[in-house]
Amino acid sequence: MTTAIPTAVVRSAARQARITLVRKYTSPAGLSVVVVSLVVLVVLWFLRDAELGVAQVGASGYIFSGFLAFGVISAAVLGVAGELQAEREDGTLLRAKAVPHGMTGHLLAKILVAPFDALIPMLPAIVGAAIFLPDVMPRDLLGWVLLLVVFLLGVVTMLPWGAVLGSVFRTMIGLAWAMMAMYAVAALSGVFYPVGGWPAPLQWAAQCSPLYWIGVAVRSVLLPPEAAAAEIGGEFRLVLALLVLLGWAVVGLLVAPVLLRRMARRQSGSTVQAARERVLAKGY
Amino acid sequence: MSYGDRLVLDGIDLEVPPGQVVALLGPNGAGKTTTVEILEGFRQPSAGQVTVLGENPATAPESWRSRVGVVLQSWRDHGTWKVRDLIEVMGGYYAPYATPSVPRPWSTDELLSRVGLATQADGRIDKLSGGQRRRLDVAIGLVGRPELLFLDEPTTGLDPAGRRDIHDLVADLADLRTTVLVTTHDLAEAEKIADRLLILAGGHLVADGTPDALRHQLSRSSEVRWRDRATGQVTVHADADPTAYLAHLLSTRPGEVEVLEVRAASLEDIYLDIVRRSETDEHDGADLPTAALEALR
Q1: Does A261 reach chain B within 8 Å, measured CB to CB?
Q2: Per residue in A171-212, pLDDT tens?
Q3: Does residue B96 fall inside a structural domain?
Q4: pLDDT digits (tens, 9 = 90+) for B2-55
């Protein structure tokens, strides 16, 4: 049985998303995320003439594409997972559950916020690079469109998996371990560099992760064609990357609602209270 | 209702008519939270039937949720938001359920004024005091003009003026035929705002009556305390009707009685007595809840 979502709920979710973004990015804590972006910009500037040996491609291009790819992953997976975990403890999810269509609206607001959460922290680096380092940016309109497609598809792909992590791990410490594992996978999956020179088993392992395909897709849009030589098979395989990401998105969108519903079902005043008492007693 | 092998609620049979203000009392671990969470639809009972506003709360549609308001103790959310923003966003979810007779959501300014937060409307939530935060929780519970409101410890952290505001608000809701279920440890508050008191102990409903019924029980439990002028010995005598005892005492021991005190048992005494008896009877295997109920009637 399907239940239509009233337009008033969509409006409330949109309003919730707008307020969330405004409150977040007008606060000192929210603005602090752009510092990383500025640091990356400085690094890019100093490495603007450095080249990577194999493909004779500028190092700044690899750093910038890795930064963008990981920005998407970080916001859509780690950010959402951390928020869901915190919201279970502070009662946000319970508050949403207590109003009609509240949980649907809350998750809809999260989906609306996610692309901005991915984009805003990277914005200084993107704008700065467009002005000072045009070589690392798309060269034409098609490139910009493709970058936007890859960006949005990356968010859509990774967002459900962030929800899965946030649903499965109930404590901050559990989630911290999951995040460490995520960083390890990111480091080994070719988000930041091509893995074409790796042994075949490692190449296959890297390709099992959606992170690899986000990295490939971003590189294929931002790097010059000759950089493809360092990739697996000597080519970027952008179409395949988009299809694989789409597949991961479909699987995530099938799995995440089941786990989110289970998590929502378990929310009650006593579970929120128990979580708070655990934090007070153990510190996490 | 049981958690694994542990029975936490057993044979609760309860019917609440519309517009009644009911206070649910009981010691820690009595099953209050479980009872309320089942009624709120936040927990599925392991057995039995529950119907709230004509629906099973665990499977009720969203339209049912629009008729129910929930005020919990455990919220600490949306700290960076403005008070007005949170109320308006939460209120927006009720808009599809407005009817000609029940405009939903409640006007934000009117609601804030009712709960005494008008001057904090544009302030940040994490800047509110504990009492103000409590008022905000109550406001959000009311924003959909619920037919049934669950209030969990509504006056915790409030100063006397704040408590009075909440009590007045509950009285107003009763006038509007809103059914209210309050859980509280404050017996005086329960007596003041509720039409009916329920006492849970050990997973059983051990008392169910109006405050008048409790007062009737109270009138049957008085304590006479006096000191013997010669020996200084203090005697305490409990009696349902102390009049006869007093008459007998004063006529048989003229001049010997000093510091005479007659004290009616408080609601707290009654409550503690009922709970204690229910726990003792439970250990003895007797049918305590029934005994306690009979004692109240």
Answers
A1: no
A2: 888 888 888 888 888 888 888 888 888 888 888 988 999 999
A3: yes
A4: 666 666 777 778 888 888 999 999 888 788 888 898 999 988 888 888 899 999
Residue A275 confidence (pLDDT) above 50: yes
Chain B's closest residue to A267, CA to CA, is B42
Q: Which two tokens stand for residue B204?
A: 């059983």
Which residues contact residue A106 at a Cβ distance below 8 angstroms, ignoring those fewer than 6 apart?
A: A13, A16, A92, A93, A96
Taking CA atoms, A204 is separated from A79, A189, B17, in Å, by 28, 10, 66
Domain boundaries along the sequence of chain A: 8-282
pLDDT reported for residue A241: 94
Q: Given A15, A23, A98, which is nearest B80 (Cβ)? A: A23
pLDDT in tens, B108-140: 999 999 888 999 999 999 999 888 888 899 999
Closest among B30, B26, B34 to B185, alpha carbons compared:
B26
* Sheet of strand B179-183: strand arrangement: B68-71, B148-152, B179-183, B21-25, B196-201, B204-209
Please give the residue range of the domain that contains residue B257: 222-264
Do the Cβ atoms of B72 and A91 come within 8 Å? yes
Set of chain A residues whose Cβ sits within 8 Å of the Cβ of B88: 15
Cα distance between residue A102 and residue B6, in whole Å: 33
Say if residues B194 and B174 touch (Cβ distance below 8 Å): no
Alpha-carbon distance of A189 to B258, in angstroms, equals 90
Count of the separate structural domains present in chain B: 2
Contact A99 B85 (CB under 8 A): no
Query: What CATH number did the domain enclosing B146 receive?
Result: 3.40.50.300
Burial of B17 (0-12, 13-18, 19+ CB in 10 A): exposed
Over residues B170-183, the pLDDT tens digits come to 888 888 889 999 99
- Phi/psi at A136 (nearest 5 deg)? -90, 0
Interface test with B, best of A99, A267, A279 (most B CBs within 10 A): A99
Question: Mean of the per-residue pLDDT values for chain B?
Answer: 83
Q: What does DSSP say about strands B68-71 and B148-152: parallel, antiparallel, or unpaired?
A: parallel
ipTM: 0.83
